[in-house]
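Explain this one:

_____
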Amino acid sequence: MTEKILIIDDDAELCEMLSEYLRKEGFAVEAEQHGIRGLERARNSDLHLIVLDVMLPGLNGFDLLRQLRTTSDVPVLLLTARGEELDRIVGLEIGADDYLSKPFNARELLARIRAIGRRNTREQRSGAAKQPVRVGDVELDPGSRTVLLGNKVIDVTTVEFNLLEILLRSAGNVVSRDDIATAVLGRELSPFDRSIDVHISKLRKKMGTLANGRERIKTIRNTGYMYVSLANVSPREKQLR
Protein backbone atom coordinates (compact mmCIF):
# COMPACT_ATOMS: atom_id res chain seq x y z
CA MET A 1 0.00 0.00 0.00
CA THR A 2 1.31 3.43 -0.95
CA GLU A 3 2.23 5.53 2.06
CA LYS A 4 0.45 8.88 2.26
CA ILE A 5 2.28 12.01 3.37
CA LEU A 6 0.79 15.43 4.06
CA ILE A 7 3.11 18.44 3.85
CA ILE A 8 1.89 21.52 5.73
CA ASP A 9 4.12 24.50 4.85
CA ASP A 10 3.31 28.00 3.65
CA ASP A 11 6.14 27.91 1.10
CA ALA A 12 4.29 26.80 -2.03
CA GLU A 13 7.49 26.37 -4.03
CA LEU A 14 9.00 24.12 -1.35
CA CYS A 15 5.80 22.07 -1.15
CA GLU A 16 5.83 21.55 -4.91
CA MET A 17 9.50 20.57 -4.94
CA LEU A 18 9.16 18.13 -2.04
CA SER A 19 5.93 16.66 -3.40
CA GLU A 20 7.55 15.92 -6.75
CA TYR A 21 10.63 14.43 -5.11
CA LEU A 22 8.70 12.21 -2.69
CA ARG A 23 6.28 11.01 -5.38
CA LYS A 24 9.25 9.79 -7.39
CA GLU A 25 10.26 7.82 -4.29
CA GLY A 26 6.89 6.06 -4.25
CA PHE A 27 4.86 8.16 -1.79
CA ALA A 28 1.41 9.65 -2.27
CA VAL A 29 1.78 13.31 -1.32
CA GLU A 30 -0.64 16.12 -0.52
CA ALA A 31 0.27 19.66 0.47
CA GLU A 32 -1.42 22.50 2.33
CA GLN A 33 -0.16 26.05 2.96
CA HIS A 34 -2.61 27.17 5.66
CA GLY A 35 -2.62 26.02 9.28
CA ILE A 36 -6.37 25.67 9.82
CA ARG A 37 -6.93 23.86 6.54
CA GLY A 38 -3.87 21.73 7.26
CA LEU A 39 -5.32 20.62 10.59
CA GLU A 40 -8.63 19.74 8.94
CA ARG A 41 -6.90 17.62 6.29
CA ALA A 42 -4.68 15.99 8.90
CA ARG A 43 -7.73 14.96 10.93
CA ASN A 44 -9.78 13.73 7.99
CA SER A 45 -7.14 11.84 5.99
CA ASP A 46 -5.68 8.37 6.34
CA LEU A 47 -2.04 9.44 6.64
CA HIS A 48 1.23 7.66 7.36
CA LEU A 49 3.14 10.85 8.21
CA ILE A 50 2.85 14.63 8.35
CA VAL A 51 5.68 17.04 7.53
CA LEU A 52 4.80 20.16 9.51
CA ASP A 53 6.35 23.63 9.41
CA VAL A 54 6.28 25.77 12.55
CA MET A 55 5.52 29.07 10.84
CA LEU A 56 2.06 28.91 9.26
CA PRO A 57 -0.74 31.42 8.59
CA GLY A 58 -4.03 30.93 10.40
CA LEU A 59 -2.70 28.44 12.95
CA ASN A 60 0.98 27.95 13.75
CA GLY A 61 2.58 24.53 13.71
CA PHE A 62 2.74 24.21 17.50
CA ASP A 63 -0.97 24.89 18.00
CA LEU A 64 -1.82 22.64 15.07
CA LEU A 65 0.19 19.81 16.62
CA ARG A 66 -1.36 20.31 20.06
CA GLN A 67 -4.86 20.04 18.61
CA LEU A 68 -3.96 17.10 16.39
CA ARG A 69 -2.55 15.12 19.31
CA THR A 70 -5.92 15.18 21.07
CA THR A 71 -7.32 12.87 18.40
CA SER A 72 -4.43 11.35 16.42
CA ASP A 73 -1.03 9.76 16.95
CA VAL A 74 0.02 9.97 13.29
CA PRO A 75 3.80 10.51 13.11
CA VAL A 76 4.79 14.16 12.69
CA LEU A 77 8.15 15.41 11.41
CA LEU A 78 8.51 19.05 12.45
CA LEU A 79 10.36 21.61 10.32
CA THR A 80 12.10 24.33 12.33
CA ALA A 81 14.39 27.26 11.56
CA ARG A 82 18.07 26.43 11.84
CA GLY A 83 19.46 27.42 15.23
CA GLU A 84 16.04 27.63 16.90
CA GLU A 85 16.68 25.03 19.60
CA LEU A 86 13.70 26.16 21.65
CA ASP A 87 11.36 25.44 18.74
CA ARG A 88 12.75 21.92 18.46
CA ILE A 89 12.37 21.26 22.18
CA VAL A 90 8.82 22.65 22.28
CA GLY A 91 7.88 20.59 19.23
CA LEU A 92 9.10 17.36 20.80
CA GLU A 93 7.41 18.20 24.09
CA ILE A 94 3.99 18.61 22.47
CA GLY A 95 4.17 15.43 20.42
CA ALA A 96 6.45 15.67 17.36
CA ASP A 97 8.21 12.40 16.56
CA ASP A 98 11.31 14.04 15.11
CA TYR A 99 12.46 17.35 13.65
CA LEU A 100 14.53 18.72 10.79
CA SER A 101 16.07 22.18 10.59
CA LYS A 102 15.59 24.44 7.57
CA PRO A 103 17.23 24.68 5.13
CA PHE A 104 17.65 20.95 4.55
CA ASN A 105 18.52 18.53 1.79
CA ALA A 106 15.58 16.61 0.35
CA ARG A 107 17.55 13.40 0.71
CA GLU A 108 17.87 14.01 4.46
CA LEU A 109 14.12 14.53 4.69
CA LEU A 110 13.60 11.26 2.83
CA ALA A 111 15.97 9.47 5.20
CA ARG A 112 14.04 10.76 8.25
CA ILE A 113 10.71 9.74 6.70
CA ARG A 114 11.97 6.24 5.96
CA ALA A 115 13.45 5.91 9.44
CA ILE A 116 10.07 6.70 10.98
CA GLY A 117 8.43 4.26 8.56
CA ARG A 118 10.84 1.45 9.47
CA ARG A 119 10.26 2.08 13.14
CA ASN A 120 6.49 1.88 12.77
CA THR A 121 6.75 -1.30 10.70
CA ARG A 122 8.85 -2.95 13.40
CA GLU A 123 6.28 -1.94 16.01
CA GLN A 124 3.42 -3.48 14.05
CA ARG A 125 5.30 -6.74 13.49
CA SER A 126 6.67 -7.19 16.97
CA GLY A 127 4.00 -5.64 19.20
CA ALA A 128 1.78 -8.71 19.43
CA ALA A 129 4.71 -11.11 19.78
CA LYS A 130 6.42 -9.35 22.67
CA GLN A 131 5.40 -10.17 26.21
CA PRO A 132 4.37 -7.40 28.62
CA VAL A 133 7.12 -6.19 30.93
CA ARG A 134 6.65 -5.12 34.54
CA VAL A 135 9.14 -3.28 36.73
CA GLY A 136 7.90 -2.25 40.15
CA ASP A 137 4.59 -0.45 39.77
CA VAL A 138 4.96 0.04 36.00
CA GLU A 139 3.60 -2.40 33.42
CA LEU A 140 4.04 -1.96 29.67
CA ASP A 141 2.09 -4.05 27.15
CA PRO A 142 3.39 -3.99 23.55
CA GLY A 143 0.28 -5.73 22.26
CA SER A 144 -2.16 -3.04 23.37
CA ARG A 145 0.49 -0.29 23.39
CA THR A 146 -0.51 0.72 26.92
CA VAL A 147 1.47 1.78 29.98
CA LEU A 148 0.08 1.29 33.48
CA LEU A 149 1.44 3.11 36.51
CA GLY A 150 -0.18 1.34 39.42
CA ASN A 151 -3.71 0.92 38.07
CA LYS A 152 -3.67 4.13 36.06
CA VAL A 153 -3.13 4.33 32.30
CA ILE A 154 -0.37 6.78 31.38
CA ASP A 155 -0.86 8.65 28.12
CA VAL A 156 2.41 8.43 26.16
CA THR A 157 3.39 9.14 22.57
CA THR A 158 4.71 6.47 20.22
CA VAL A 159 8.30 7.59 20.77
CA GLU A 160 7.85 7.71 24.55
CA PHE A 161 6.35 4.20 24.57
CA ASN A 162 9.26 2.76 22.59
CA LEU A 163 11.79 4.58 24.74
CA LEU A 164 10.21 3.38 27.97
CA GLU A 165 10.07 -0.20 26.68
CA ILE A 166 13.81 -0.22 25.99
CA LEU A 167 14.57 1.13 29.45
CA LEU A 168 12.19 -1.23 31.27
CA ARG A 169 13.52 -4.32 29.49
CA SER A 170 17.02 -3.24 30.53
CA ALA A 171 16.01 -2.08 34.03
CA GLY A 172 19.04 -1.78 36.27
CA ASN A 173 21.38 -1.51 33.29
CA VAL A 174 22.58 1.52 31.38
CA VAL A 175 21.34 2.02 27.82
CA SER A 176 23.43 4.41 25.74
CA ARG A 177 21.90 7.46 24.06
CA ASP A 178 23.13 6.18 20.69
CA ASP A 179 21.44 2.79 21.16
CA ILE A 180 18.23 4.51 22.23
CA ALA A 181 18.29 6.85 19.22
CA THR A 182 18.86 4.01 16.78
CA ALA A 183 16.02 1.95 18.22
CA VAL A 184 13.55 4.75 18.91
CA LEU A 185 14.24 7.34 16.19
CA GLY A 186 15.65 4.96 13.61
CA ARG A 187 18.72 7.14 13.13
CA GLU A 188 21.96 8.23 14.75
CA LEU A 189 22.07 11.37 16.84
CA SER A 190 23.73 14.39 15.31
CA PRO A 191 26.01 16.63 17.40
CA PHE A 192 24.07 18.70 19.96
CA ASP A 193 20.88 16.73 19.20
CA ARG A 194 18.72 16.74 22.33
CA SER A 195 15.79 14.72 21.00
CA ILE A 196 16.26 11.78 23.36
CA ASP A 197 16.84 14.06 26.36
CA VAL A 198 13.55 15.87 25.71
CA HIS A 199 11.60 12.62 25.45
CA ILE A 200 13.21 11.39 28.69
CA SER A 201 12.19 14.64 30.40
CA LYS A 202 8.59 14.18 29.23
CA LEU A 203 8.49 10.61 30.56
CA ARG A 204 9.80 11.75 33.94
CA LYS A 205 7.07 14.38 34.23
CA LYS A 206 4.34 11.93 33.29
CA MET A 207 5.51 9.12 35.58
CA GLY A 208 6.71 11.05 38.60
CA THR A 209 9.25 9.72 41.07
CA LEU A 210 9.45 6.46 43.00
CA ALA A 211 7.79 6.31 46.41
CA ASN A 212 11.14 7.14 48.02
CA GLY A 213 11.51 10.28 45.89
CA ARG A 214 14.17 8.92 43.56
CA GLU A 215 13.98 9.46 39.82
CA ARG A 216 12.68 6.44 37.94
CA ILE A 217 14.97 7.16 35.02
CA LYS A 218 18.52 7.92 36.04
CA THR A 219 20.90 9.91 33.86
CA ILE A 220 24.33 8.32 33.51
CA ARG A 221 26.59 11.21 32.59
CA ASN A 222 28.23 11.03 29.16
CA THR A 223 26.72 7.58 28.61
CA GLY A 224 22.95 7.24 28.62
CA TYR A 225 20.03 6.37 30.86
CA MET A 226 18.94 3.63 33.26
CA TYR A 227 15.53 2.72 34.63
CA VAL A 228 15.94 2.20 38.37
CA SER A 229 14.93 -1.27 39.54
CA LEU A 230 14.69 -2.56 43.11
CA ALA A 231 18.18 -3.99 42.70
CA ASN A 232 19.48 -0.41 42.47
CA VAL A 233 17.72 0.72 45.65
CA SER A 234 19.41 0.52 49.03
CA PRO A 235 17.85 -1.62 51.81
CA ARG A 236 16.74 1.51 53.71
CA GLU A 237 15.13 2.95 50.58
CA LYS A 238 13.25 -0.31 50.06
CA GLN A 239 11.82 -0.01 53.58
CA LEU A 240 10.49 3.42 52.67
CA ARG A 241 8.46 2.00 49.79
The first strand starts at residue 4 and ends at 8. Confidence is low (pLDDT under 50) at residues 232-241.
